[in-house]
């Protein structure tokens, strides 16, 4: 009981902190986008919006359950909350991948082939966002078929803080959707990895050239700070993603009574969406200043 209360208190604090951070990023970048329509602003707005959905659909229910409130969701509530969390997670992966690609295009040489793919208008990005939501909505649709409220679960132990149950599902359907999720993740992570590598190389090249041009009065320019922010953001994302994957495999194969591992996995699931707005904020005293000169 004490451990659950501590967990609930920590989750409440971190979820609240993450929500405030993401709303701050969301509002500030909307203001910047209205004054200067840049695609990078729109992507960061969308990323913050998706993060807020993840926090509301995962962080808030987990906090309520950890604080001892049981059976607060019916079947419909469970389906909506878990489905939103699944879809938002997928959209976050897709949006993070798009962010690295756009950043690689932005700092690439003016006459490179990468520049040809730069969106002519920031509004063209909206079509990509729509594709992300449709794709992930379809991939996660099977979740609504086998998730249910735990109100009728009489075997629930006192240490369990799950607010929804998973009914047995058709194995063929399970493996089909699991394959689609793996395909989505591997595809977008592959694109992200290639773009991150390109950003890293271009970042080093820009630093070297600028340092040679003005070695005595060298000061990191805004576009280099932007690249550093994206690299740090993607490093955080990949770290949390792979740690979550490793623990997911451990939990699925050795479920037993590893409650501590399950609790750590819950924090890792929320780690990126909580940390990412502060990664964006801490690079400059004024949010978004590192992108204004691009």
Descriptors:
mainly alpha; 9 helices; 2 strands; two-stranded antiparallel ribbon; single chain; 294 residues
How does the major sheet shape up? 2 strands, antiparallel
Amount of beta strand: under 5%
Rg from C-alpha positions?
Answer: 21 Å
CA(first)-CA(last) distance: 52 Å
Give the % helix.
Answer: over 70%
Number of strands: 2
Seen as an oligomer or otherwise, the chain set is single chain
Count of discrete alpha- or pi-helical segments spanning 4 or more residues: 9
Shape: globular
Order of helices and strands: HHHHHEEHHHH
Structure, described:
By secondary structure, the protein is an all-alpha fold. Helix content is 74%, strand content 2%. The protein is built from 9 helices and 2 strands, in the order αααααββαααα. It has a two-stranded antiparallel ribbon. α1 packs antiparallel against α2. The radius of gyration is 21 Å and the shape is globular.
Short description:
The longest helix is centred in the middle third of the chain and has 43 residues, at 171-213.
Topology:
Blueprint lengths: L1 H34 L3 H28 L8 H33 L17 H15 L3 H4 E3 L14 E3 L4 H43 L8 H32 L5 H24 L6 H4 L2
Antiparallel strand pairs: 1-2
Helix pairs in contact: 1-2, 1-8, 2-3, 2-8, 3-4, 3-6, 3-7, 6-7, 7-8
């Amino acid at each position: 009981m004490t451990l659950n209360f501590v967990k609930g208190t920590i989750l409440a604090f971190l979820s609240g902190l993450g929500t405030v951070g993401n709303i701050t990023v969301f509002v500030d970048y909307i203001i910047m986008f209205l004054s200067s329509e840049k695609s990078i602003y729109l992507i960061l707005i969308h990323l913050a919006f998706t993060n807020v959905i993840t926090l509301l659909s995962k962080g808030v229910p987990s906090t309520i359950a950890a604080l001892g409130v049981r059976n607060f969701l019916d079947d419909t509530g469970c389906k909506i909350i878990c489905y939103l969390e699944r879809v938002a997670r997928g959209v976050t992966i897709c949006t993070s991948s798009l962010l690295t690609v756009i950043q690689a295009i932005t700092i690439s040489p003016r006459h490179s082939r990468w520049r040809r793919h730069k969106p002519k208008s920031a509004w063209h990005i909206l079509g990509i966002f729509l594709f992300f939501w449709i794709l992930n909505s379809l991939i996660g649709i099977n979740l609504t078929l086998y998730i249910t409220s735990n109100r009728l679960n009489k075997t629930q132990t006192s240490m369990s803080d799950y607010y929804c149950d998973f009914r047995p599902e058709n194995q063929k359907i399970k493996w089909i959707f699991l394959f689609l999720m793996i395909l989505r993740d591997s595809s977008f992570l592959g694109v992200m990895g290639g773009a991150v590598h390109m950003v890293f190389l271009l970042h080093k090249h820009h630093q070297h050239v600028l340092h040679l041009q003005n070695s005595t009065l060298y000061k990191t320019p805004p576009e280099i700070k932007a690249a550093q922010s994206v690299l740090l953001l993607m490093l955080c994302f990949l770290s949390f993603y792979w740690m979550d994957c490793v623990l997911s495999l451990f939990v699925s194969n050795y479920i037993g009574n590893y409650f501590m591992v399950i609790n750590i996995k819950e924090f890792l699931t929320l780690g990126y969406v909580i940390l990412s707005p502060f990664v964006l904020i801490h690079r400059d005293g004024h949010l978004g200043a590192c992108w204004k000169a691009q």
